[in-house]
Design goal:
Elements (H helix, E strand, L loop, with lengths): L1 E2 L5 E2 L12 H12 L21 H7 L21 H17 L7 H8 L3 H5 L10 H22 L10 H4 L1 H10 L9 H11 L10 H8 L1 H4 L17 H7 L23 H6 L3 E5 L8 E3 L2 E5 L1 E3 L1 H16 L6 H12 L3 H9 L3 E3 L4 H11 L13 H11 L2 H13 L3 H29 L4
Parallel strand pairs: 3-5, 6-7
Antiparallel strand pairs: 1-2, 4-5
Length: about 450
Amino acid sequence: MGTNSHGVKQNLEHPIKVWELNQSRLALMHQKLAETPRILSRSAGRNTCCIFKVPQSLIDINGRSYQPHVVSIGPYHHADPRLKMIEEHKWRFLGTLLHRTRSKGLVLEDYLKAVYPLEIKSRECYSTEVPYDSDEFLEMLVLDGCFVIELFRKFGGVTAFESDDPLLSLSWVYAFFLRDLIRIENQIPFFVLECLFDLTRLPNEESGPSLRNLALRFFDNAFQRSDESLEKFEGLKAKHVLDFLRSSFIPDRYQEPTQSTYTNTNVIHCVTKLRRAGIQLKPGKEDSFLAIKFSRGIIEMPTIPIDDFMSAFLLNCVAYEQCHRACSKHMTTYATLLDCLINTSWDVEYLCDRNIIENYFGTDAEVARFINNLGKDVSFDIDMCYLSGLFNEVNNYYKNHWHVHWASFKYTYFRTPWSFISALAALVLLILTVFQTYFTVMPYFHPSS
C-alpha cells in the first residue's frame, strides 16, 4: 500500500487498467459486417432457390445419403477427387455429342452461348454461393447437363451405346447413377437441361420422346411404373430431376389444402395398436404410394418397395421439402405416417405380409430403423398436410370404445388357432365348474323327500 499527495491510500498491487481499442479487431468486425453470407446465401430464402446443402442435423442422422458416390452434378461436389473416374467419361460423352450434332453446324462454343443467358438465374437456384467464375460455371453446366442428357438418351434407346462402353458393361455403375442423380446436393436446374436438350436434338428426333419422358424411362426400373402412366407427366413443371420425380408421385386428388379444415390434428398409432382397435391395413390399387385411403376401419396403402434406391429417394425428397419454402410436404407427411405405423420389426413384418411393403433393403429391424430415421427431426403443419383428414378419421375410429374393446378381445383370443383353443378350453372349464358348483349346492337348499 502507498499514499498519494493528498494522503489517500492506493493499492499498488492492483493498478486500474484502462481499456484500449484494438484497431485490427475493430477493422475485422467492420469487414464481417460488410460480408454477405456464403454458406447459406440470401437467395436460399427465395422461391427461386431449389438446390440446397443439406442441414447438418439431417446428415448426422442419415450420413452420406445426400452426397454423390460416383458422379457429381452441379457445383457442390464439383472436382471432388473421389469422383474423378466418371468425370473423365463426362468429357467422352460431350465429345460424342459434339460429333453427332456437327450435322446441325453446332460447335462447343454454341453450347456455351446457349447456356450463358441462364447463368444468373442458375446461380440463384443454389442455397450457397457458387465459388466459380462465369467461365468455370458455364463449363460445368454444359459438361454436367450434356452428360445427364446423354445418359437419358442412351438408356432410353434414342442413342446407341458404344459396344465396349464401360458404363454399360459394368453393371454396378447404373445402380449408382440412379441414386446419385436424385441426391438433393447433386442437381442442376431443369431449365438448363431443357435448353441443352432442345439445342442438341437432331431433326430425326423431333417426333421422339421428350426430356421428361426419357427421364422417367431412365428411372423406370427403379420405380416399376407402367409405360402408360408416364405420358401424363409431360406437362409437369420441374425445378430439377429430383423435383420432377417427386412431383410425378403426387396425385391430383391428394393436394394439400389451401386452408385448414382441422384443428389439433394428431398422428396415428402404430400397426400393433391399430390392429388391436380393429383397424386393418390392406394394399391399395393406386399408382402412387402417396394415395392412401381410410374407410370403415380399413387403411389402404399402395405397395412401396423399400430398397437402396427408394431409401435414397425418400430421404432426399424429405430433405428437399424441409429446405424449400414453397414446396409441398407430401413426402414428409408420408414419412411421418410410416414412422407412426412402424415402431418395431413386428410392425414391418405385418406390413410385408399384407403386401404394403416389399422389403429388398435388409432385415425387418433394418427397415424399421430406416423408417424411424426418415421421420426424425422433420417439421410440417399437420393440420395443413394432405393426410390431415385421414389422421383425424383414424383417430376418431380408434377412440370408439366399442370398436376398441371388441377388437381387443378378438385380437387377444382369436388371433391364432392356439389362442382360440385356449380360450375355448377355459370357457368349457368355467362352464363345468359352474355346473359342479350348482349340483353341489342345490341339495342344501332343496333336500329330497
